[in-house]
Write a structure and sequence with these properties.
It is a single chain. This protein has one domain. Helix 5 packs antiparallel against helix 6 and helix 6 runs antiparallel to helix 8. 30% of the residues are buried. It is mainly α.
């Protein structure tokens, strides 16, 4: 009975998130395009945005596959959770989170196209990205909704921020977090195989 109530509640909450998901998707897409264009115009400057990825890659070099999976999972989960928890600060954190990740992905794709085929890039992003990117968009959407509700509360409108935060966290923990874990598993064990099948390396 409780499980059915949760499912119904999550379905209703997802419907309420739709406009915020649309906004998150547009922001991510525009920032990705900006990153792609920026690398074409200012390659040296824009490539500096990849420093975080390079540091993460260096940190993963000497780890076992299981440890790599855990690092990827916790890295993504904590950043997305922060986007939710800090959303009430007028949505500033999820906004910055989307812009940064979209820009970095755009730069990365353009950089890779110089040396590799589109099929290679697809193999390196799509297997886990098909789950990870929607989770990024939805977690940001939760943050935006919380930011909107916080703004309404300041205006004196009847809003229960505690209830909104509880709903957002329940949605994140019950639905998004398991999928973030699955994406980390795929990125660790499936994505390298896809790259190998495409490139032979």
């Amino acid at each position: 009975m409780l499980e059915e109530e949760l499912k119904d509640g999550f379905g209703d909450y997802f419907e309420e998130l739709r406009p915020y998901i649309v906004m998150s998707t547009l922001l991510f897409a525009l920032s990705m395009i900006a990153g792609y264009i920026a690398y074409g115009i200012f390659p040296e400057y824009s490539a500096e945005s990849l420093s975080g990825l390079e540091e993460l890659a260096e940190m993963l070099q000497d780890l076992s596959l299981f440890e790599i999976m855990l690092v990827i999972f916790f890295n993504n989960a904590l950043k997305m959770l922060a986007s939710v928890l800090l959303g009430p600060v007028f949505g500033a954190v999820p906004f910055a989170f989307l812009l940064l990740n979209g820009f970095v992905l755009g730069v990365f794709v353009n950089l890779q196209l110089v040396e590799n085929s589109a099929l290679y890039i697809t193999a390196g992003i799509a297997p886990h990205g098909i789950i990870e990117i929607p989770m990024l968009l939805i977690s940001s959407a939760i943050g935006f909704r919380l930011g909107h509700k916080a703004f309404n509360a300041i205006l004196g409108k009847p809003v229960s921020l505690k209830n909104e935060l509880t709903r957002g966290l329940q949605f994140f923990l019950h639905l998004l977090l398991p999928l973030i874990f699955i994406a980390a598993l795929i990125e660790t064990f499936i994505t390298p195989l896809a790259i190998y099948l495409v490139s032979g390396t």
